[in-house]
Amino acid sequence: MKVIFAGTPEFAATALAAIHAAGHEVVLVLTQPDRPSGRGMQLHPSAVKQFALDHAIPVAQPVSLRLDGKYPEQAEEAHKLLKATPHDVMVVAAYGLILPESVLSIPPLGCLNIHASLLPRWRGAAPIHRAIEAGDAQTGITIMQMDRGLDTGAMLLMESMPIAADDSTATLHDKLARLGGEMIVDTLQQLLDGSITASPQPDEGVNYAAKISKEEAALDFNLPAQLLAQKIRAFNPFPAASAVLNGVTLKIWRAEVVEKPISAQVGQLILKDQQLIVACGEGALSLLELQKPGGKRLPTAEFLKGFTVGAQDFFA
After folding, report:
1. Where is the Formyl transferase C-terminal domain (predicted)?
2. CA-CA 20 to 30 A from 282: which of 30, 56, 190, 206?
């Protein structure tokens, strides 16, 4: 099957690699323009572009696909390229650009999206983060036929996966990326066989997974410890949960809920057997891995060797 692939980060590159390995002909890759990163802020290709370059797959990087947007000339060029490239289907995974109806109508077999949620549970940009933050027991992958709505299209294939108690967005992302790669290959095979069926999404149970912002990183210890533990896992690796102690903003990478009752004021620290425990609005958290500005991520025992705290200290 001839495939046009649209995607940008590592999640998408995993799917692209699976499609390529399964023997499908990837005739064109769409990915976002190179972005500056690193200490020198030099331009770097996306993970999808790098895979395409390594495997001699043509790449296009339009800044927009909207003919009525800010960059109509680039969008028009992208439309011409898509129409001039013989293909059967377009596969989309974490592309980051809106596909207007004028693009969705080009592929003969339509556009398929690899979405990291059991639709319609989490529609939108950050389904992995929001599932962990909300304390969901499971998530999964939905392969969806794209339409003009936001993750509203008919479902072709769905598979669930449990969210482990210690899963962060980083670990769950990798698990779901592998599952998404396997499922899109299965979907393409069923398309070839003519054996696939589409089901409309339920009208109930819809939630919007808003894009994660850095402003959400600050922890409010007035909240229950369980909610804060979920937030810490959800925001690992980005933007990393944070809290201010003695005027220093610390990143908190891992924590767990303390089961035993704690007698302390909200935000107060309790030092016990190399543990750093903080009282919350309900329950308490044991902070397991922290990082000070300019420092490394360290287990609590190592962190405390280079950062002095007292039992009467409070997180702001």
Report:
1. 211-307
2. 206
